[in-house]
Amino acid sequence: MFKQFTENINGHQVYLLSSLGIFLVFFIVVAVMLFRLRKTHIDHMSALPLADGDTPTPNTLIP
Amino acid sequence: MQPEKFYYDNKIVRNFGIATIVWGIIGMTVGLIVAIQLFKPGMNMGNQYTTFGRIRPLHTNAVIFAFVGNAIFMGVYYSLQRLLKARMFSNILSQVHFWGWQLIIVSAVITLPLGLTTSHEYAELEWPIDIAITLIWVVFGINMFGTIFKRRERHLYVAIWFYIATFVTIAVLHIVNSFELPISAFKSYMVYAGVQDALVQWWYGHNAVAFFLTTPYLGMMYYFLPKMANRPVYSYKLSILHFWALIFIYIWAGPHHLLYTTLPGWAQSLGVAFSIMLIAPSWGGMINGLLTLRGAWDKVRDDVVLKFMVVGLTAYGMATFEGPMLSLKQINGLAHFTDWIVAHVHVGALGWNGFLTFAILYWLIPRIYKTELYSKKMASFHFWIGTLGILFYAIPMYWAGFTQGLMLKEFTPEGMLKYPSFLETTLRIIPMHMMRSVGGTLYLLGVIVMAYNLARTMAQGKLVANEAAEAMPLEPVTATTDGGSWHRKLERRPIPLMVGALIVILIGSIIELMPTMTISSNVPTIASVKPYTPLELQGRDVYIREGCSNCHSQTVRPFRSETERYGEYSKAGEFVYDHPFLWGSKRTGPDLAREGQKYGNAWHYNHMLDPRLMSPGSIMPNYDWLISQTLDTTTTRAKINAMRKLGVPYAVGYENQANADLNAQAQQIADNLGKDKIKVKSDKEIIALIAYLQRLGVDIKANKTASK
C-alpha cells in the first residue's frame, strides 16, 4: 500500500529526509528539556489552575 | 511584601459567552437550512441570497469564527486572568476586541449572501474584512500580552502557551492566505494562481483547524478540565511534549487535502507523512485529558459538565485518529470529495468544539453569576440529545460517503463505469441526507435548551462584573531564583516563547510552500493554455459569486474511474491563470474541469433555468436570476488590469478593447441560443457563465489536436 507513496517522490527524498531529521532533532531537544525539569516545579505548574483563588460555588464544593 | 488587591473582569467573559450562544444558534440554523437544501433545493426559498452556494460559507464561517471564535475568547479571557493573577490589560481593548469581532461577523452575514467572496474555503471574506480581522486580532494580541506582562504569577501555565501559539500562527496564516489584489471595494483576486494558490489555501485551511479549532481548545481543556474535576492535569510533562510536537507537526499536514491533484508528488508525500505522525501528539493531548479524570470517574456519572468533556475528548480522539487515516492515499482516493469528509469534520466540530464549549458555558456562567445552574435536568437532556444528534449526523454521512465513493469507482465486468450518471449516485444517498438533517435538528434543539437554561441561570443570579482577588506581586528575578533548566526559563519569558512557537511553525511552512512558489519546474506550463477572454473572466466571477465550487470540483484525479467519467486528468499548467484556483473540496455534483464543449449552450441555459429540465431529480437549485440580471461590464477594465499585474499575459492596452471583445463573444452565444429558440439578451449574466463553462478544460484538448 505504500508503493504509490514511495513512487511519487521522484528524487525529492531530500525534502522527506531533512524534514524527518529536523523533527527528530527538535523532538529530542524538547525531551531533554523535559527531563531536566524539577519535580517541585512540575508540581507547582500543574497546580496553577487549581490555585487561582476561585471561590467554589455551592453546587460544586471541593471535597 | 503586601498582597495586591485587584479585580477579574467577568463582564467581558459573559459578553463573549452570550455571543457564543447567539451565533451558535444562528450558525447551526443556517447549517440545518443548507443540509435540507441538499435534498429539497426549494428550501433556498427561490432566492439567490439564501441559496446553498452562498450560505454554505455563511454556515462554516459562523460556526468557526462566530461560535467557536467567541467561545475561544470567552475561555481565554476567563482563564488567562486567573492563571496570571491579573485583570485583563485594558478594558478598552477588551471592548474593542469584543465589538470589533461582532462587527466582523455581522459583515460576514451581510457580504456572504450577497456573493462577495474570495472563494477560499474558511477565508471567503473579502479584503476590507480581512484587514479588519487583522486589526482586531492585533488588539486581542496586545490585550493578551499586556496581561501577561503585568502578571503576578511568574511561570506561564501550558494553557497560555497554547493561546500564544494560536495567536501567532493564526496571524501568519491569515496574512499569507489574504494576499489579494483589490479591484473594487468588495472584489479582489488572489495573488497566487492554480497549484500555488491551492497549496496556500490548504496550508491555511488545515491549520485553521489546527490553530483555531484545536490549540485554543487544548489550552482551555488544560485549564478547565482540572478545575472541573478538581485535580491537577495527569501529566504536565506530557502536556509540554505534546504542545511542541503538535505545533511542529500540524503545520506540515495541509497537502493531504490535495492528494492526487497536480500538487508536486513530494509535497503530497510530505503532507501524508506528517499527517500520520500527527496521531501521536493529538492522542497525547486526549489521553492527558482523559487520565486527568483518573480517580474521578464516579463524578462523571453525576456531573453533566464532565460528561460533556468526556464525550468531547473522545470525539477529539476519534477525529484525530480518522484524520491521519484519511490522509493515506488509498483511503483518501475513496473518501475525498464525498460526505465521509463532512462526517469527519462534524465529529470534530460537534463533539470536540461543541461539547467543550457547552461544558465550559455550564461551568462558567453559574460561577460568574454566583448562583447554581437553573436546571441540571435540562443540561442532562442537552447532553443526551446532543450526543444522539452527533450520532444521527455522523453515521448517515459516513454511510453516504462510502456508498457514493464506491459507486463512483465501480466498473462493470466489461470495463465500463457501472454508474456513468453522477446523478444516480446522488439520488442514492438522499435518504442519508434526510437522516443527517434530523441529527442536526436534535443537536440544535439541545443548544436552544441550553440557551434557555443559561438565560434562566443568569436571571436568577447577579453578574459579579468585577470579581475581587488578591495575589503577591512578582519579585524581581534574582540570581537565586533564576536557576533551573532552559525550559523553566522559557516558561517565564512570553516573547521568546512566542518567537519559539513562530519559528517552529515557520519551519514546516517554508519547506512546504517555498519550493512550489519559487521553483518553476514544480508547475510545468502548457503552451496551449491561454488566458480567459473578458467574457469568460466575468463568467468565472459569476461562478465564484454563486459559490459553485462548494459543490463542483475542477480537478480530475488520475484514476481510471475519473478519467472515464470526466476526461483527461488535470495538469498543473492548466491552472496558471486561475486567480483564485477553483478546485473545490466536495463533489455534491460532478467535476467540471472538462465541462467545456461537452454540452451545447442551450443545454447550459436550460440547466441553469431549472436543472431538472435536463437532469430529472437533480438537487441543484435553479439559477433563474442569472437570466434576468445584467452583467456588470464596468469592472472589465479593472479586472484585466489586475490580472495583468498578477502575471496573466494580456497585451498592454487590451483593457481598452476588452469590453468590445466581450460584447462580440456574448452576441455569438446569444445568437447560438437563438437558433435553439431561446431568446435572451447578450448582456445577461447567464451568457458570461455559459462562456466560462464552455471554456473549462478546452485548452488542453486544443493541444492534443495540434500535436496530432
UniProtKB/TrEMBL annotation, chain A:
The keyword Transmembrane helix applies. The keyword Membrane applies. The chain crosses the membrane at residues 12-35. Keywords: Membrane, Transmembrane, Transmembrane helix. This is Cytochrome C oxidase Cbb3.
TrEMBL record, chain B:
SUPFAM superfamilies: Cytochrome c, Cytochrome c oxidase subunit I-like. Cu cation binds at H206, H256, H257. Residues 1-475 form the Cytochrome oxidase subunit I profile domain. Heme b 1; low-spin binds at H59, H346. It holds the Pfam family COX1. One of its GO terms (molecular function) is heme binding. Its cofactor is Cu(2+); heme b; heme. It is an enzyme of class 7 (translocase). The chain crosses the membrane at residues 12-38, 58-80, 92-115, 127-149, 156-176, 202-224, 236-253, 265-283, 304-321, 341-365, 381-401, 434-455, 495-514. Heme b 2; high-spin binds at H344. Gene3D superfamilies: Cytochrome c oxidase-like, subunit I domain, Cytochrome c-like domain. Keywords: Cell membrane, Copper, Electron transport, Heme, Iron, Membrane, Metal-binding, Respiratory chain, Translocase, Transmembrane, Transmembrane helix, Transport. It catalyses: 4 Fe(II)-[cytochrome c] + O2 + 8 H(+)(in) = 4 Fe(III)-[cytochrome c] + 2 H2O + 4 H(+)(out). PROSITE patterns: COX1, COX1_CUB, CYTC. The keyword Electron transport applies. Its EC number is 7.1.1.9. Residues 534-697 form the Cytochrome c domain. This is cytochrome-c oxidase.
